[in-house]
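Example 601, ligand adenosine-5'-diphosphate.
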Amino acid sequence: MSDIIQLLPDHVANQIAAGEVVQRPASVVKELLENAIDAGATSIKLLLKDAGKTLIQVIDNGIGMSGTDARLSFERHATSKIKSAEDLFNLSTKGFRGEALASIAAIAHVELKTKQESEELGTQLKIEGSKVISQEVVSTSKGTSIAVKNLFYNIPARRNFLKSDTIETRHIIDEFQRVALAHPNIAFLLHHNNNEVYHLKESNCRKRIIGIFGAKMNEKLVPIDEKTDIISIEGFVAKPEFAKKKRGEQFFFVNDRFIKSSYLNHAVVNAFDGLLDTNHHPSYFLYLTVPPNTIDINIHPTKTEIKFDNEKALYAIIRATIKHSLGQYNVAPVLDFNRDATLDTPYSFKQQKVTTPKITVDPSYNPFKNDDKEVYHQQNYKKDIGSWDVLYSNIEPEVKTEQAELFENKTITEAKKTIQIQHKYLLSAIKSGVVLINQSLAHQRVLYERFLKSITVSEANSQQLLFPVKISFSSQEIETIYTIKSELENAGFVFEEFTKESITVRGIPTSILESQITQILEQLLNDINLDIPEASFSHFDVMAKSFAKTLCIKTGAVLSEKEQENLVNDLFSCKEPNTSPFGKNTFKTLTIKEIDAIFSH
Ligand code: ADP
Ligand code: MG
């Protein structure tokens, strides 16, 4: 039999290797940003088109490359960063594999312009699918610009595999944030489809965090600072009362590189011991510095995991340091040398006592107390339809005497009365037995259908605010809100102004209170960012769900008889009364038969 093994042609081998480095546009962004940092840039611009699918361009003012180096940089295993395997144990740069540019050039159209400071002229290089198309001498400024166009143009399967622009943008922004947070001393700019998303000046850690997550973050940060022989820890944790239901802002940087570590995360969470509500995750931005030869960074291109020599000691130090800082901020003002006076807490706020974290359920909040809503409920209560009434009328009494009929009428009216159990459930006798309703889930269903209707048919009523409310958000959050502006307007929001840092709201849906605006928008952002359905992404649905979740009557709310009745009627006028918008049961009936069965043995 003849030999059957063949060597793969170079271009195929390159494409396969490229697939390991470049999974999506965000991987390219990460590699290019890291190269710019390694080149000593103090200012880095990232320009994107169509979530990076059409263009990813990184422009830096770093050391640039000579003509020969420019050409070499696209060869596999070409790197200026290590010379021997030993260098691997003392890395201070991000790159070292010399694979990124070669991989990117194998699967995209790449245009490089670069110039060293000492040179008069620079080099322009065009490469498509690993093939050099042209190399020219050009006049350009000091540093390097790399434009990566039409990613995966020659691997349609990979291109088709990319997710929606919203999701790919989210991945890019995650990478960008990690790099920008790791290097507050470098200026960063991010433009997407010609919109400015971030404009981050060279600054310190605190200001960089605020530049990315918005001015309201300033209030939340507790500084951390500790130096020992084996580690130095700097950065911030967010106060426990700002912990989030979803893991969001959790960042570890080790020697200026973002890493994930569930072990160290555990140390942080442990330091919050007893201060967090269940299922809440603390936010943190922790910058660890350790001797480079005491860590082993997994050299797989896409991994961000790391192994420490003295893991246990680090765990203990991190936990103790954070615990100490949390304790301190509760009793005494903490010295924070990184602090910028302009970002300081307003005086009036400083005088306020620090509140201990508590569950933020407002038991007195009751949407039915609002007059508008009372009207809504009465108008919408249609006695003749809705399965509620059906529940009462589907069983005929077996013997119908005059007395029985009288009695029956009386029991029906009385049976409609509900009782509230543990400020959580409504129990009502119905003709076939009893029905048990979860007040919070039932109300979620009611609000969800109401919001969905008003958002999609844009019939919502809006109430003018006496004074427009200005709310600060991060620029990325503002971009997100801007993309769903028209849906929010359908729901009853009226916006006056969008700036880079804030949104001014002039009108709100009649069904919400002024004091709830921030909460409802923040929850919405959270839901949009983290619950993006992979396919058919519907803002309407996410929005209606988010509003319903935020505004529903919570467990613990005391409901008057009338309110209970309204809720029951509203629930059974819903299109799908059986489940909450998140798929949980809203009520359960127990028939007399089932009740009998309980007592039959
Ligand atoms: P690595 O970063 O692992 O060395 P890359 O493929 O990312 O591998 O880059 C190859 C080489 O090209 C780098 O070692 C560096 O010398 C050079 N290079 C890449 N990007 C830049 C840049 N923005 N400025 C200057 N030199 C660069
Ligand atoms: Mg690199």
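Summary: DSSP finds 20 helices and 22 strands in the chain.
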